[in-house]
């Protein structure tokens, strides 16, 4: 779900098996992306994965860094991340979102060879767009709660609205 000139283009790591089966981003029931998107104020109500097209009405889009579906992101290779970073840079240059939001600091580090990256706004740009790295909303990421993730997503929302 992408379009030209979005406020924020969210970029997941790669499709999980449920996403691949349904065609809907972050479709696994334990994934916290959709609840956090709502809690952070990006959407006025909780959207279901099947409603992902509605993101465009809010100036938001969603894509993936790597197209290959896996059960877990740690199944991806360094080469897949690097190629994903190159393809994402070209996509962002073409679409020109105000912000690129990469969901997962480990994926961002791997794709853009930036070992020092932390969650939050990044110094550099990707494809001409500013970059914000967000925590991975997977249920496997126990370091972040839905509430603390929503706070970080809200910081991005405020920056995107400024």
Q: What's the gist of this structure?
A:
34% of the residues lie in helices and 17% in strands. A hairpin with a 2-residue loop joins strand 4 and strand 5. The radius of gyration is 14 Å and the shape is globular.
Structural write-up:
The protein has helices at residues 17-22, 33-39, 78-95, 105-112, 146-161, and strands spanning 8-12, 60-64, 99-103, 120-126, 129-134. By secondary structure, the protein is of the alpha/beta class. A five-stranded mixed beta sheet has the order 2-1-3-5-4. α2 crosses α5 and α3 packs across α4. The longest helix is centred in the middle third of the chain and has 18 residues, at 78-95. The chain is globular.
What global shape is seen?
globular
Strands side by side in the biggest sheet: 2-1-3-5-4
Helical content stands at 25-40%
Give the number of helices. Answer: 5
Please describe the biggest sheet, giving its number of strands, its sense, and whether it closes into a barrel.
5 strands, mixed
Give unreliable regions as ranges.
none
Total count of strands: 5
Report how far apart the termini are: 24 Å
Radius of gyration using CA atoms only: 14 Å
Attribute tags:
5 helices; 34% helix; globular; alpha/beta
List the helices and strands and how they pair.
Blueprint lengths: L7 E5 L4 H6 L10 H7 L20 E5 L13 H18 L3 E5 L1 H8 L7 E7 L2 E6 L11 H16 L1
Parallel strand pairs: 1-2, 1-3, 3-5
Antiparallel strand pairs: 4-5
Helix pairs in contact: 2-5, 3-4
């Amino acid at each position: 779900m992408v379009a030209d000139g979005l406020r924020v283009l969210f970029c997941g790591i790669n499709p999980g098996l449920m996403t691949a089966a349904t065609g809907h981003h972050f479709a696994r029931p334990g994934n916290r992306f959709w609840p956090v998107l709502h809690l952070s104020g990006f959407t006025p109500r909780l959207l279901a994965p099947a409603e992902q097209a509605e993101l465009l009405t809010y100036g938001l889009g969603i894509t993936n860094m790597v197209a290959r579906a896996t059960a877990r992101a740690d199944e991806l290779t360094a080469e897949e991340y690097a190629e994903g970073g190159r393809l994402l840079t070209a996509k962002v240059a073409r679409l020109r979102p105000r912000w690129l939001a990469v969901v997962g600091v480990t994926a961002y580090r791997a794709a853009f060879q930036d070992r020092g990256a932390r969650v939050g706004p990044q110094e550099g740009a990707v494809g001409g767009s500013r970059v914000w790295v967000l925590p991975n909303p997977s249920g496997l990421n126990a370091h972040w709660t839905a509430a603390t993730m929503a706070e970080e997503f809200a910081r991005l929302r405020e920056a995107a609205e400024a």
